[in-house]
Amino acid sequence: MTSVATTAGADAVGRRGAALVVLCFVQFMLVLDDNVVSVALPSMRDDLGLGAAGLAWVVNAYFLAFGGLLLLFGRMADLLGRRRVFLTGVALFGAASLVCGLAQEPWQLVAGRFVQGAGSAMASPAALALIALLFPGSAERARAFGIWGGIAALGGTTGLVISGALTGLASWRWIFLINLPVALAAVLLLPRLVPESRAGRAARLDVPGAVLGTGALVALVYGLLRAGESSWGDATAAGPLVLAVVLAVAFVAVEARAAEPLVPLSFLSFRFRAVANGATLLFSAAMYAMAFLLMVHLQTVLGYRPLAAGLAYLPYGAGILAGMWLSSRAVARLGMRPALVMSFLITAAGLLLLSGVAPDDGYASGVLPGMLVTSIGCGLSLPALTVAALTGTTEENAGLGSAVLSSVQQIGGAVGVAVLVALATRRRDGLTVEGSQYAATEGFSFALVVAAVLVALGAAVIAALLGRARPPEGTPDV
Question: How many CA atoms lie within 13 A of 336 on its CB side?
């Protein structure tokens, strides 16, 4: 009898491990498509005749759909079934990848990218919710989130390398077509590994809240993207941002009166999660902007070819994985609050090192030290932030908690790129230093110093507020 129970337990553990592998590789694919098009944009322009605006929207259409629809689909996952919503999102993402890979007209590529973003918005929060439910214990959940976050970060880093290799050796179309085997494997394997889960009590989707919340997020992301392309005072940016504020106020008013709100105000007011999500917003703003600015700096100032610039990011991925491996140990030994403060300060120090990269610096002496310190700090931060942001989520709201976290990350990234790239550009254009390389370096350095300040501010928020927000029993001490 004991041997039968042991075998059953081993089988359950094996299925959980296999499910985690499948979910991680899907997340790898989704994060890969956040930036995989960056290196391939010139080839797309030449092949499809895209103008400057069209090129921008090949990138922005994905972020607009992903960031705008996360909240809606996260709640739908709780109500309709997390496995069902995840599989639907993966299938949609795979179909859209095929459309992108076969596109013959610019509008087909942009439309495919938008649908890809919608599929990601369905799959990503559902995947994170499934992991949270598969690994309920605080220690095993931290390890699972560490693996999940490490694979996701690796996807973000290697996307540039894969894009450069496929574009240079084959065609830009393959950066989309390689998604098909991963999507197909996930659709076939996951139903055998993960049972369906949904909120325990029957509930209806709050349609007014869904419309207002989704509209506010779409307007916010669109306005931020437009601000990054033009300026904050431009009507095409200011109008959507004002609309986002109006819709957000209406959303709060509707949710306060709804019998079954899309986002219960008690969920948002839970202080421990609120502090974690606030710190995530600052951290994401800094790190998304750093990745964008550093890739541009490597190619335009230091003279790296696209593939070489992508390969230069490989140590960054290694540093993130090392930080991920250390993260759960740091939380267990120090507690969540000290571990997060330490990891944020390490990241800020790395950003300051990167801000000092000069046009005549070599890779090993100039770029690599700051990249390694930043990546280790980032790897230390991500799993602990994820655990903190999902603290207290249950069978009823795991999808919602995952969607809120993902929305915060996407919005933080959009804000960071829009604001810090604009600051770098204005600093560069305002200088009278002879030589465009040195003016561009000054803009790059200034933006990364601001990014370091944002991360340090996140550390201060955690140090001051996280310790006063009491987590539920079973969460690592703060």
Answer: 29
> In angstroms, what CA-CA distances link 141 with 19, 31, 206?
14, 21, 30
* Residue 477 per-residue DSSP state: P
Q: What token pair was written down for 33?
A: 């498509």
| pLDDT, tens only, 108-157 | 998 999 899 899 989 988 888 888 788 877 677 767 776 776 676 666 66
d(CA 84, CA 81): 5
The DSSP annotation for 171-182 comes to -TTHHHHTHHHH
Token pair belonging to 354:
């990167």
Distance CA 5, CA 74 (A): 35
Please state the three-class secondary structure of 56-79 as a single string: HHHHHHHHHHHHHHHHHHHHHHHH
CB 34, CB 62: distance < 8 Å: yes
Position 433 pLDDT exceeds 80: no
**Digit-coded pLDDT (tens) for 177-236:** 888 998 999 899 888 888 887 765 656 677 787 788 778 877 887 787 777 667 777 888
The torsion angles phi and psi of 50, rounded to 5 degrees, stand at: -75, 140
**CA dist list (Å): 293 to 167, 264, 296, 370:** 21, 37, 5, 14
